[in-house]
């Protein structure tokens, strides 16, 4: 183990202590460390304890976003790299109120929570196991297990790495609205076209 790794990683801003002092959970007796995906009826706040200082990394994703899909195997491997932390993921399209609350305007979006309070946002465009490990280490001072790598199982789940062909309701609504507007404009134009010759005919009589 290298001496003072936190100081070495955070040398640019001179921060020796971790930015977020996470209470690490007791992993005694636990043999499986995996990501939990919230379903549509589950509330994130039920999984975050406001009275504790334990830390949870939360991913906001959508199953039809290709960036979410490419991130999935890397995020799936994180619970094994950091067994003392918790990892959650939620479909942002099913939890729109949470997305608004935490300023999730684009997916994938990763937030580090301490208790129920968001402490840091992962802003790196290169979303790999290594950059995620660096982010967690720089924020918490907790080192990743060195023997963890992305496996075939991580590509299979729990977070899907294959795009789901979902219905983009906003796009569908936009197309229908545009089609309706074009139809309405066409009918209005035709009625004016028919109206003008009719008016001329009445004046001629």
TrEMBL record:
InterPro entries, sorted: Thioredoxin-like_sf (IPR036249), Thioredoxin_domain (IPR013766), TXNDC15 (IPR042418)
Presence of keyword Ribonucleoprotein: no
GO cellular component, one term: cilium
Domain of life: Eukaryota
PROSITE patterns: THIOREDOXIN_2 (PS51352)
Domain Thioredoxin, chain residue ranges per copy: 1-141
Keyword annotations from UniProtKB, A to Z: Membrane, Transmembrane, Transmembrane helix
Pfam families: Thioredoxin
Gene Ontology biological process terms from the UniProt entry: cilium assembly
Residues that span the membrane, as ranges: 169-187
The keyword Transmembrane helix appears for this protein: yes
The protein, known as: TXD15 protein
Native species: Donacobius atricapilla
Gene responsible for this protein: Txndc15
């Amino acid at each position: 183990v290298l001496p003072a790794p936190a100081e070495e990683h955070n040398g640019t801003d001179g921060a020796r202590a971790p930015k977020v002092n996470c209470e690490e959970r007791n992993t005694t007796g636990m043999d499986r460390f995996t990501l939990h995906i919230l379903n549509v009826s589950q509330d994130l706040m039920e999984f975050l304890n406001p009275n504790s200082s334990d830390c949870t990394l939360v991913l906001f994703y959508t199953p039809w976003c290709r960036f979410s899909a490419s991130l999935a195997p890397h995020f799936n491997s994180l619970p094994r790299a950091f067994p003392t932390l918790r990892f959650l993921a939620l479909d942002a399209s099913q939890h729109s109120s949470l997305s608004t609350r935490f300023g999730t305007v684009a997916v994938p979006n990763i937030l580090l929570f301490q208790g129920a309070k968001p402490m840091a946002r992962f802003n790196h465009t290169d979303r790999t196991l290594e950059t995620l490990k660096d982010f967690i280490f720089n924020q918490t001072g907790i080192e990743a297990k060195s023997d963890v790598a992305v496996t075939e199982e991580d590509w299979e789940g729990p977070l899907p790495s294959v795009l789901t062909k979902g219905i983009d309701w906003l796009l569908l609504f936009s197309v229908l609205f545009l089609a309706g507007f074009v139809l309405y404009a066409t009918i209005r134009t035709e009625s004016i076209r028919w109206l003008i010759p009719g008016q001329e005919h009445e004046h001629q009589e």
